[in-house]
């Protein structure tokens, strides 16, 4: 086929797909092999009752030469070929083989459909590969070679219509290219059996009674009569055997995931071998990110242990990157703080991909020199001090003391949080000496005067301190509507050693809440 | 010779963004010293890449006020990234403004030893330009057990990272502090109702400087006299 085509399709067909899917994953000693239908459970020839179950789906060439054909029972097949090795379908192998087929298609064009198991159609109309335009047979041979390396045998058909390309693939030995002329194609396809069109059982039976065995015989029938007698399906079959109508492909849009899972043959007990493994996974995932011009904004790691427990965590990457060494350092820092009661038996790692972005901080804000290094340092600080001890303060809507939580320092501040509080609240915060809290609060003995005001304090078994001035009390309470109700009587006292304390009476008694200064 | 158009561009920028040039415009400040606008802190001549110490023996002399002032630093030309290494987990977020909290990295420690290690990590990191180490509520016995080499290591790390490390203590304990401020005057109960700006502007203390340009000049003069 020479260049200048407006539409050009290629079909890749794996003959004896189910058999190939089994054979490409395993090596078999016997030369006569057949695969039986039924659910693919992955067991191969070990089932003693296999002979009594299922029918032959596909047999290899040697077995077919011995008379084994599709549709035979296992007993019939063995009767014709006693040395025949019967295999079960391998569902996992079939999925893998189909993926390999689609991977081959994706090397040539992004426009391809997974038509059925063992068959895919490529739209090469806009392919930039010069050899497709120049010599389609050469392109077909290259597709075959690529799949042969994956232990899969393929037939390639090329034509100006998708359905015609499929028929060409069925007729190919091993590559067949049909010209623009549908009549020319139909001549080449005249010997194809009717079964390649996969008609319904009823229609197939009618056509068989009519004596129609091949596409050429079907194509010779008048179209209008086919429509009258066999309805819509008959019309569709007639059009198919004449090369089909122009149609759009149901494009495969693979969901790109940057995830790797590894089941370990030998359980891992310490960090070094785990890091070695993680580095390998990260190299692979970062390479895939680089191919798509993406970077990782977070990494999710899951460790499964021998005692069936699972540990998982998501580590945010401060500055999205695809630097494997840097991502590994973040993981290393985090995993140093993780301990487990059993060895690791499986590892899963997933990178959350984002597009690289540029961001300028405020004109009068100093940016971070190395956000990823700070993220690592924050991880080290958490390992030193415990989780939740390092971060940015986020206030909670409550008047209760210590109503706050710590959030990740590197997370951007939400607009609602960044807004300044009202003028009244701002005035309160900018007034007086700040308080520094005792955590936990310190129990204190308090001597009261006749009016019930504190006049002396005794902290931690020391001497009594005289209260020189006292402000208060202020009664504060909250959450009275639920079980977490609290109530406090707050005093501000100056003692004779010069310190200013916040003194609080709670249900349990008097405590020193903090020191002003 | 700077071209005329560059000079005029600089003038336009200075007029348009006076905040960015506040440092250059500030008068009386030592070259490179941090200008906070509060006499007490500016008198210490705090420099990036050095260690400073603020000593408040009684706890109510204003160390907390200065801690917040160094976090907020609204009068500086560029707002720094601030970390508070809280040796005794004493910081009360309700005392600070939301704007300050949004820029603050709070490291809550339970003992002095971990606080020193946390400060070490932050100084090695180099991303945070101001580290405030609050050891005031830590037990004196634990503070005395901090070896002097640990402080010298922090000084070298601060110097390398160009970070200001300011320690808040209840007694003089940082051997390599370039600037030290002793707060001695305690506040009365009435101070709890005063404005924070007023309290900060009235805050006084005894400043002790070590090294620096004057120290170097003194040493050179003494060497010249001896020679």
Automatic annotation (TrEMBL), chain A:
<protein>
    <submittedName>
        <fullName>DNA polymerase Y family protein</fullName>
    </submittedName>
</protein>
<dbReference type="InterPro" id="IPR050356">
    <property type="entry name" value="SulA_CellDiv_inhibitor"/>
</dbReference>
<dbReference type="InterPro" id="IPR043502">
    <property type="entry name" value="DNA/RNA_pol_sf"/>
</dbReference>
<dbReference type="InterPro" id="IPR001126">
    <property type="entry name" value="UmuC"/>
</dbReference>
<keyword id="KW-0227">DNA damage</keyword>
<feature type="domain" description="UmuC">
    <location>
        <begin position="5"/>
        <end position="213"/>
    </location>
</feature>
<dbReference type="GO" id="GO:0006281">
    <property type="term" value="P:DNA repair"/>
</dbReference>
<dbReference type="Pfam" id="PF00817">
    <property type="entry name" value="IMS"/>
</dbReference>
<comment type="similarity">
    <text>Belongs to the DNA polymerase type-Y family.</text>
</comment>
<dbReference type="InterPro" id="IPR043128">
    <property type="entry name" value="Rev_trsase/Diguanyl_cyclase"/>
</dbReference>
TrEMBL record, chain B:
<dbReference type="InterPro" id="IPR027417">
    <property type="entry name" value="P-loop_NTPase"/>
</dbReference>
<protein>
    <recommendedName>
        <fullName>DNA recombination and repair protein Rad51-like C-terminal domain-containing protein</fullName>
    </recommendedName>
</protein>
């Amino acid at each position: 086929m020479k260049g200048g085509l407006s539409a050009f399709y290629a079909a890749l067909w794996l003959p004896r797909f189910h058999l190939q899917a089994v054979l490409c994953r395993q090596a078999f000693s016997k030369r006569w092999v057949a695969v039986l239908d039924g659910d693919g459970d992955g067991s191969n020839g070990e089932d003693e009752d296999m002979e009594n179950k299922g029918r032959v789906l596909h047999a290899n060439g040697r077995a077919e030469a011995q008379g084994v054909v599709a549709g035979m029972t296992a007993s019939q097949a063995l009767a014709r070929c006693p040395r025949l090795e019967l295999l079960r379908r391998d569902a996992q192998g079939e999925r893998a083989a189909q993926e390999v087929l689609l991977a081959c298609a994706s090397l040539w064009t992004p426009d391809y459909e997974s038509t059925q198991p063992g068959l895919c159609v490529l739209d090469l109309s806009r392919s930039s590969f010069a050899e497709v335009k120049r010599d389609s047979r050469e392109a077909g041979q290259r597709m075959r070679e690529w799949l042969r390396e994956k232990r899969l045998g393929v037939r390639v058909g090329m034509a100006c219509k998708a359905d015609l390309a499929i028929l060409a693939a069925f007729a190919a030995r091993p590559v067949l290219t049909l010209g623009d002329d549908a009549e020319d194609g139909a001549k080449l396809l005249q010997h194809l059996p009717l079964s390649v069109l996969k008609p319904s059982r009823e229609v197939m039976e009618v056509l068989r009674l009519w004596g129609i065995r091949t596409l050429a015989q079907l194509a010779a029938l008048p179209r209008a009569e086919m429509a009258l007698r066999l309805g819509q399906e008959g019309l569709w079959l007639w059009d198919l055997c004449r090369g089909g109508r122009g149609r759009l492909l149901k494009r495969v849009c693979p969901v790109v995931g940057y995830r790797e899972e590894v089941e370990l043959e030998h359980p891992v007990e310490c960090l070094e071998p785990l890091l070695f493994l993680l580095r390998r996974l990260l190299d692979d995932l970062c390479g895939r990110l680089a191919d798509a011009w993406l970077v990782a904004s977070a990494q999710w790691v899951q460790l499964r242990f021998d005692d069936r427990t699972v540990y998982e965590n998501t580590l945010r990457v401060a500055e999205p990157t695809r630097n494997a060494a840097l991502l590994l350092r973040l993981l290393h820092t985090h995993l140093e703080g993780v301990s487990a009661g059993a060895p690791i038996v499986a590892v899963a790692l997933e990178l959350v991909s984002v597009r690289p972005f540029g961001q300028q901080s405020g004109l009068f804000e100093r940016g971070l020199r190395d956000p990823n290094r700070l993220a690592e340092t924050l991880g080290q600080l958490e390992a030193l001090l415990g989780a939740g001890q390092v971060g940015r303060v986020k206030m909670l809507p409550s008047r209760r003391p210590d109503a706050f939580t710590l959030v990740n320092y590197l997370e951007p501040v939400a607009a609602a949080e960044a807004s300044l509080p009202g003028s009244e609240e701002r005035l309160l915060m900018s007034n007086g000496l700040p308080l520094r809290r005792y955590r936990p609060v310190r129990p204190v003995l308090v001597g009261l005067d006749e009016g019930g005001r504190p006049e002396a304090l005794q902290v931690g078994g020391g001497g009594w301190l005289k209260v020189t001035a006292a402000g208060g009390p202020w009664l504060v309470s909250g959450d009275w509507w639920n079980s977490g109700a609290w109530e406090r009587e707050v005093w501000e006292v100056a003692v004779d050693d010069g310190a200013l304390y916040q003194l609080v009476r709670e249900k349990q008694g008097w405590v020193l809440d903090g020191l002003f200064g | 010779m700077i071209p005329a158009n560059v000079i005029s561009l600089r003038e336009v920028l200075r007029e348009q963004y006076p905040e960015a040039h506040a440092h250059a415009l500030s008068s009386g400040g030592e070259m490179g010293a941090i200008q906070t606008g509060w006499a007490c802190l500016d008198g210490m001549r705090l420099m990036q890449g050095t260690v400073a110490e603020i000593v408040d023996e009684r706890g109510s002399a204003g160390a907390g006020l200065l801690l917040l002032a160094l976090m907020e630093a609204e009068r500086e030309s560029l707002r720094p990234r601030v970390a508070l290494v809280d040796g005794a987990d004493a910081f009360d977020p309700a005392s600070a403004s939301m704007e300050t909290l949004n820029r603050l990295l709070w490291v809550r420690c339970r003992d002095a030893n971990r606080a020193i290690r946390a400060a070490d990590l932050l100084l090695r990191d180099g991303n945070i330009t101001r580290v405030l180490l609050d050891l005031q509520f830590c037990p004196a016995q634990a503070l005395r057990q901090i070896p002097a080499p640990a402080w010298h290591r922090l000084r070298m790390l601060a110097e390398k990272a160009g970070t200001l490390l300011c320690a808040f203590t209840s007694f003089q304990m940082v051997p390599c502090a370039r600037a030290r401020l002793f707060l001695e005057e305690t506040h009365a109960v009435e101070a709890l109702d005063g404005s924070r700006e007023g309290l900060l502007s009235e805050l006084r203390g005894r400043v002790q400087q070590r090294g620096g340009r004057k120290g170097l000049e003194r040493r050179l003069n003494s060497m010249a006299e001896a020679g």
